[in-house]
Amino acid sequence: MTGVPATLPLFPLQTVLLPGANLPLHVFEPRYRQLTVDLVTGTVPEKRFGVIAMKAPVAEEVDKVDQLLPIGCSAVLRQATRLPDGRYDIITTGERRFRLLDLDSTSAPYLIGTVDWIPDTRTPPAMAERIGSLADSARAAYRRYCDTAWEKGDWDEPADDTDPADLAHLLAADALLPIEDRQALLEETRAAHRLRMVYSLLTREAGIIAALRAVPAPASAFATKMNLN
How buried is 132 (Cβ within 10 angstroms: 0-12 exposed, 13-18 middle, 19+ buried)? Predict the structure, then answer.
């Protein structure tokens, strides 16, 4: 941890954002419309806010730390389109993980979190020599998953020069993984362990898809739409 807490506007969701992953959002609630305006106008510095997953069962109003998972990911606003009725379609990109320390639900229309940034753990020299082969195995699992789950041409593998420390998050970004698995990847600070995790997860999911002959839909696809915040 950095030891220097920061404040960050928060957008609680029923998903986990991973560093480097893109997250499109349709913003319709007034408090998060205001957050979008503040991001666009620069009222919120660097167009940065936090995405953090809500614990189950999901509460209609989030105002306590224990209603949220402990680790989230900062996001940077990349694009915002205002719709005629005042809603927004935005595109964001995950940046870095944080631990939620405290929650302020009164100072702004939206939630403000006190957070501590969580850097990666340094890779030991002995493991650094093996990380290339771990990355190759993870990429192979990703290709098998995508060949099974998606139509040819509907996916793109991360660039060859992607840092191994970033690779696992990017490989997992497009996979329909359960929220628990995505959260575990986010919380893991060891790059080599993340690569092992994503290899195992993508191998498992490819096997499930092949057996079902269908791509499992996320649980949210069957949920009744709720006004959660």
Answer: exposed
